[in-house]
Amino acid sequence: METLYIKLYEKYSKLKVSKDHELDQADKEQEGKFVDYMNAAETLIKHLNNDKMRLSEVIDELRSEVVSLRTAKDEQYDDFQQRLIEEKQKNRDLSAEVEQLRELQQEIPRSDQHEEPAIISMQHSPSVSREKVNESPMRMTRKKRARLSMEANSETNSTASGLHAPSTGKKVLPDQPIDISKAYSQSECCQGNIDNEGPCKCVFQNLVESLIDMKVSVANHPEGRCIHLVHQSSGYSFDLLWRNKASSTGDVWYHVSSLGAFANVAPEWMRREILIFSMSMCRVFFERISRFIKHH
To answer: What is the pTM of this model?
Structure first.
C-alpha cells in the first residue's frame, strides 16, 4: 500500500512539474507579447508626440502669419481710410471753390468791362435820374440796361441843339437840320470795319456782349477777319464770317470751334462744322443761341 502511495506521489510530482513548466512557458509567451505591445505603443506615442509638436509649430507659424497679415491689412485699411478722408476733403474744397467761382462768374460776368461804361453814359444823359445811376450794377438786368441805354441815346439825339459842330465850333440851333456824322465824332476803336486791322474793343462790343451773354472778339481767318464768340461758363465757341460784304444781304458763315459742356446736348445745327445763313437771319440765329444757353 505504501508502495502505491509512493508511485502516486511521484506521478503527481511529475504532472505538477509538467504543469508548472507549461504555465511558466505560457507566462513567458504572454510577457513577451506584452513587451512587444508596450514597445509598439511607446513607438506610436512617440511618433504621435512628434507629429503633435510639428503641427503645433505649424499652427504657431500660421497664427503668427495671420497676425502679421491682419496687422498689415489693418494698417492698409487705416491708410485707405486716411486717403479717403483726404480725398473727400479735397473734393469738398474743390466743390466749394468751383461753386464760388460759378457764383462769381454768374454775379460778376463782366462788371468791369460792361457796367462802368454803361453807368458813365447814363450819368451824362439828362433822362436818367440819379437814382438809376446809383443803382447797383449787379441788380440791373440786361433788359433794363438796354432800355436805359436806348433812353440815353434817344435823349442825347433829342438834345442835339446844345452840341457844336466839330468843324466850325458853332452852336447848332434846334430848327436847323443836324448832320449826325458831323455832330458826333466816332471813337477810334469803332472807325474801322471788319476788313481793317485796327483794334475792335469798344463800348458797342461791350453792349453786344451784355446782350448775348457771350465774349466777343475779332479774329483772323484765312478768308478774312471774323467775329469769334465764346460762352465762358460752358466753353462753347464759334466764329462768324461775313461773305459778300459789299452787299447788304451777304451771307454769314457759322463755324463751330468747340461745343464745350454742350457736346452731349447740342442740337444738330449747332454741331455742324459750317452753317450758312443770310444777314436777315442773324436775329433768329442769336435768339436760338440765347434760348439754348438759357435752358441749359
So the answer is: 0.35
Q: What is each CA distance from 280 to 217, 239, 283, 284, in whole angstroms?
A: 22, 18, 7, 8
Distance (Å, whole) CA 248 – CA 280: 9
pLDDT level of residue 7 (50, 70, 90 thresholds): confident
Q: Where are the domains of the chain?
A: 1-107, 110-185, 196-296
Q: What is the pLDDT of residues 41-97, one digit of tens each?
A: 999 999 999 999 999 999 999 999 999 999 999 999 999 999 999 999 999 998 888
| Mean pLDDT for the stretch of residues 264-291 | 87
Q: Which three cell numbers stand for residue 124?
A: 451824362
Strand partners, 234: none
Burial 230-269 (b: 16+ CB within 10 A, else e): bbeebebbbbbbbeeeeeeeeebbbebeebeebeeebeee
Assign 3-state DSSP to the chain and report helix, strand, coil percentages, each to 5.
65, 15, 25
Are the beta carbons of 110 and 213 closer than 8 angstroms? no
**121 pLDDT above the threshold of 50:** no
What is the pLDDT averaged over residues 147-172? 44
Beta strand pairing call for 215-221 and 224-231: antiparallel
Contact 200, 217 (CB under 8 A): yes
CA neighbours within 13 Å on the CB side: how many for 159?
Answer: 11
Nearest partner of 271 among 292, 251, 250, 291, judged by Cα:
292
Between residues 66 and 168, which one has the greater pLDDT? 66
Asked if 216 and 205 touch (Cβ cutoff 8 Å), the reply is: yes
Q: Report d(CA 214, CA 288) in Å as an integer.
A: 14
